[in-house]
Amino acid sequence: MEMKTYLDLLKILPKTNCKECGEASCLLFALKVFSGQTSLEKCPYLDQDLFPQRTSLKGLSFNQTLENLKILREKFQSLDDFIERAQDLGCEPESTGRGVLLPYLDWLIRIEVNQEGHPTQLVNLSGETLDPRDEILLCNYFIFNGKEPLTMDFVGLESFPHSISKVKTLKIYGEDPLVELFTQNQPKLRSILQRFRVKDFQKDTHGFSFLVSILPKVILKVVYWEGDPEDGLPPGGKVLYDRVALNYLDLECLVFCAERFAERLRC
Ligand code: SF4
């Protein structure tokens, strides 16, 4: 069974967070397996026969992710005009002057700033773990330093150049999980969404749509339609992006925004 990222492993873990592997959660276990800090055998509930070639777990793409993160982190930490960027990108300066606060998904991220005004580290104030992809996304947000005002005109990912391969990824990891979640949780949906920065929720007889801020300048429009069982039409959904979203993040990070939103909704 080939696994390219820790998320592939996470999907087949029981997600009971029983801690028998010595880690605080299944997510942490999956992350540590991929970073080589622990091994698959430590989880007694994992079917080891699924992994005849253990080396495939250290998927190239994940190692590349870590390598990318190292480079991005260095670039991020050497930003000279960080405070100015942070304000333009929707961060709140801390009264102490030693950090800024950034809303991200349903979290608040504190970015520490040293005496030279350079960012040093990202701390999730909720205490939950930021995984390497969160860090890549956040570093990119400041490195891209988008300037073009948001249009609030939303388009599908396929409208962006060179997006063909990412459209499928978005469907598998973002749109399909969201549709499944919305279909299963319709009655309590509004309360699930409350944790997030959601606005403009609109409902009609066919479904609903809303806007959600992943980051202050990265807003997704999520559209869900209920389908019609009598006509054999399944429920469906789509994630749309501001027409100028590529000024703020690259395609991969934009797809990850939807994927991570779906993951956070399940928590
Ligand atoms: S032992 Fe397995 S199920 Fe339990 S927390 Fe670790 S990974 Fe999750």
TrEMBL record:
Signal peptide range: none
Alphabetical list of InterPro entries matching this protein: 4Fe-4S_dom, ACDS_complex_subunit, DUF3786
Tree of life domain: Bacteria
Residue ranges of every copy of the 4Fe-4S domain listed in the record: 1-60
Swiss-Prot/TrEMBL keywords: 4Fe-4S, Iron, Iron-sulfur, Metal-binding
PROSITE patterns recorded: 4FE4S
Gene3D superfamilies registered for this protein in UniProt: Electron transport complex subunit B, putative Fe-S cluster (1.10.15.40)
Keyword Cell division: no
Iron recorded as keyword: yes
Protein known as: DUF3786 domain-containing protein
